[in-house]
Amino acid sequence: MKKIKYVIMIFLVFSIDQISKLIISNSINLNGSVEVIKNFFSLTYVKNKGAAFGMFSSYTFIISLISVLILIYLLFELFRSKSEEKLTNYSLSLIIGGLLGNLYDRVFLGCVRDFFDFTLFDKGFAIFNVGDAFIVIGCFMFIISVCLEVKNENSSK
């Protein structure tokens, strides 16, 4: 029962992702764009059948299968981890919630809905969604937790 807060966090991340995608898909036409900050940030509604940067777009089933396998592994790691490994548990929860949001889109829509569109140094960046952002944040948190764990192990020797 100590892991219930992480399950709630996963559900919240999934919900925020899906609600944001629903709002965008109901507000902006497909491939339409609304400039929020001139020459820097727009909301651009696109559908991505592939993985990052649209790669492997003709392999939606394989991407979904890999996502399910990663999801199972991450859930196993979350419930196997110790309760005091809070940073690790929070990071896994963010990754799982974002992964679930994108997996839901792939399974039920055949593509992932993306909309955050940044331009940096006059170059377009990959268009992404809330789930992607949570996955990236969760990965950075996980790296930090591993580094802290290694540092603690080295200092206790």
How would you portray this structure in words?
By secondary structure, the protein is α+β, with helices and mostly antiparallel strands. Helices cover 61% and strands 15% of the residues. Strands 1-2-3-4 form a 4-stranded antiparallel beta sheet. Strand 1 (33-37) and strand 2 form a beta hairpin.
Helix content: 55-70%
**Rg over alpha carbons:** 17 Å
Q: What is the spatial order of strands in the main beta sheet?
A: 1-2-3-4
Q: What class do helices, strands and sheet pairing give?
A: alpha+beta
DSSP summary, beta strand count = 4
Strand content: 15-25%
Q: What about the largest sheet?
A: 4 strands, antiparallel
What is the H/E order?
Answer: HEEHHEEH
Count of helices? Answer: 4
In short:
The protein has helices at 4-27, 60-80, 86-109, 130-155; strands at residues 33-37, 41-48, 112-120, 123-124.
Outline the secondary-structure elements.
Elements: H1 4-27, E1 33-37, E2 41-48, H2 60-80, H3 86-109, E3 112-120, E4 123-124, H4 130-155
Antiparallel strand pairs: 1-2, 2-3, 3-4
Helix pairs in contact: 1-3, 2-3, 3-4
